[in-house]
Design brief:
Layout: H1 5-27, H2 31-46, H3 71-89, H4 93-106, H5 111-124, H6 127-138, H7 145-169, H8 172-177
Helix pairs in contact: 1-2, 1-3, 2-3, 3-4, 3-5, 4-5, 5-6, 5-7, 6-7
Protein name: TPR-like protein
GO molecular function, one term: protein folding chaperone
Pfam family, one: TPR_16
């Protein structure tokens, strides 16, 4: 049974209220509380989708335009991107990419979600994928200091991996000669 227009607006308002509470908690540095609020917001908003399970939702990603994204999808995407930032602050690096990917599933044009995904990938050690995302983001904003900071993170990760590799292989060929 479809919900009434009034009920739809009430649930949307409640979901957005939880989103705002999440933002307030985040600004106060209460990241776990913010995650809870964002999660509640998603519970309200996901149920408003005409197709909550996305059953046979056929969107050709090559022909998708930003104007095809609904306001509801934009809100869901923003909330997931915010959750990715909370996970980053809490140093739960394995969860950043998951939240960012959920955001991008709802709205593939969400640049903040792409940036959060790049941040998560860097911290997980997937620097090549992260660099590709940063390349894509830098096309629109080549001088963004946040992108430059993440490029430095990639450099640090690569140097750490190189140093580790050198230590592992140190003296390997000397031993082979004896």
């Amino acid at each position: 049974m479809p919900i009434s227009e009034e009920e739809l607006h009430q649930k949307m308002a409640k979901g957005l209220e939880y989103k705002q509470e999440g933002a307030v908690a985040f600004k106060a540095g209460k990241y776990d509380e913010a995650l809870k609020r964002y999660h509640h917001a998603l519970l309200y908003l996901r149920g408003l989708n005409d197709n909550p399970l996305n059953v046979s939702k056929s969107r050709d990603p090559d022909n998708l335009k930003e104007s095809d994204i609904t306001e509801l999808e934009k809100e869901i995407s923003t909330i997931n991107a915010n959750m990715a930032l909370c996970q980053l602050r809490l140093e739960r690096f394995d969860r950043i990419a998951r939240c960012a990917n959920e955001a991008l599933k709802a709205n593939p044009f969400n640049k903040k979600a792409k940036f959060r995904l790049a941040q998560g990938l860097i911290r997980e050690g997937s620097v090549i994928k992260a660099a590709k995302l940063l390349d894509e983001l830098e096309k629109d904003s080549p001088n963004d200091p946040a992108f430059a900071a993440e490029r430095r993170q990639i450099d640090i990760r690569e140097k750490q991996a190189e140093s580790k590799q050198r230590k592992e292989f140190a003296g390997m060929f000397d031993r082979a000669k004896k």
